[in-house]
Amino acid sequence: MTTLNHLNLATSNVPELTRFFQTGFGFNLMAQRGNGNFNLLAGEDGFILALLNDKSVTPQTYPSTFHVGFLVVSTDKVREHHRLITEAGFDAPAPGPLQQGGRNAYGFYCHAPGGVMVEVSAQAD
């Protein structure tokens, strides 16, 4: 079996993107190097997210369709993640119906700090 182990994301704001993934999705900070310019985060399932400082990154520098997607088990979980993100002071539009490759979903997309687009969705009830 082949397992996706980690993802490196370039960002212009490592500290705020770290806080976004910690508060919104329960990632834990495993290591920090270079005065906060390189952070390693671990998800509940052991997935590693490496955040690397790149001051040139903006929402326009990533390809328009690039995003990090979280699939959750229910529409209630979508709303919970939305609540966690917005209560932490991050901007996220209200969840709603999404059309994803022929299946109906419920969720939202938001720009996380430092130029990264994030999707949170569940199969529609």
UniProtKB/TrEMBL annotation:
Domain VOC: 3-123
Coiled-coil segments on the chain, per record: none
InterPro entries hit by this protein: Fosfomycin_Res_Enzymes, Glyas_Bleomycin-R_OHBP_Dase, Glyas_Fos-R_dOase_dom, VOC_core
Chain ranges passing through the membrane: none
The protein's name in its UniProt record: Glyoxalase
Source species of the chain: Edaphobacter acidisoli
High-level lineage: Bacteria, Pseudomonadati, Acidobacteriota, Terriglobia, Terriglobales
